[in-house]
Structure formats: C-alpha cells, structure tokens
Specification:
mainly alpha; elongated
Amino acid sequence: MSWHGRRRDGYHHGNLRDALVTAALDLLAKKGPTGFTFAEAARAAGVSAAAPYRHYRDRDDLMAEVARRGFELFATDLSKAWNEGRPTPLEAFYRMGKAYLTFARKEHAYYIAMFESQIPHSYTPELQKAADGAFGVLREAAAALAATLPPDRRPPSLMMSLHIWSMAHGIASLFGRGDEARRSLPMEPEELLEAGVLIYLDGLGFGKNSSA
C-alpha cells in the first residue's frame, strides 16, 4: 500500500493512536468500511480489546480519525498539484484533477474512510475542518480560474467547484481506485476526466480564446 510511507508502523508505548490508525487502514483495504469491528482493529494493532478506549470512544470515532488524516493528506496533495496556479490556472486546474485520481488510487484505504464509511464530516470539529480544507483548495483554484474571464462571464466558483468535484469523485469511485471495486475502462481514468473537464470548461468559456 502506498500509504505505508505516510504512516508510522507498529505499536510502541505512547504511539497507540497511530498503531490503531495503521490497523484500520489495513482492514479498510482488505475488508471495506464495514467489514471489521473495533475489537478486530485492536487485535490487528497488537493490543487488548480494551486498549483502544484510551483514545477512541468506538469504531466510528477511530474511523473519523482515519478520515481526518486522509483529508489532510488529500488537501496537501491538491495544494501541491495546484501550485498557486502555475504556470497557468488552467494547466494547474487539470493537474489537480489528476492528483485527485492519483490519491483515490494510491491511498484508497484513506479514500474509503473519507467517502464510504458513512461517517458524517460533522462527526467531529476536526474532521469537518479537514474536509472543508480539502474542498477549499478546489474552490480557491476554481475562483482563480474564473477570475481569468471577464467579470460579466465569470461562473460562481462554488458551482464550478461542486461540478468538478462531482466529476472527479465519480470517475475516481468507478474507474480510478486501487482495489477490486475499480471498473474496467478502455482508457485511462485521467484521460476520461480530462475530456470531461475540457468539455465542461469549454462550455463556460474557457476555450482557445480564454486568457487562462
């Protein structure tokens, strides 16, 4: 799993939270969002069934923590791809779409916790903040791209963000994942997303005559 490089492995004294998150990620990758219990996560972490209660109320609490960390990593990846809109907002916007699909494929255990665990983002203030932060990167990029059009032709950045998010999420969920849930596709998911975004943005006026 690619997320091995972005976590701490094993249980050590004082590192129980990380050990449980690692265990949850392993179980999510193998069994999906509802395929394991809190006790199984404890067993996978190598601790007693009672030990997780030192940090988490229950399985949902643990899942919320995994989702929070996932959204923070996701926001970081999107921000790097956006790179403050360089060299142009349009090029950077397409690059963000590819980053979205890359995250879904390489970090699919996090992706499951974030979007398929049925844990609402409002479950904790920390999770809500992380989820809003990831979406905020996309909205910032949409606003910068919209600003390249004349004022009377600029689409609302929130609308653009929601449309692009929906498109990227749908393609990622159906075709761009790194597990058995991925559907076959006669092209790369990145190509499908790029074509969809191209058609969408062209309809908004971001065509060859655009300064984006």
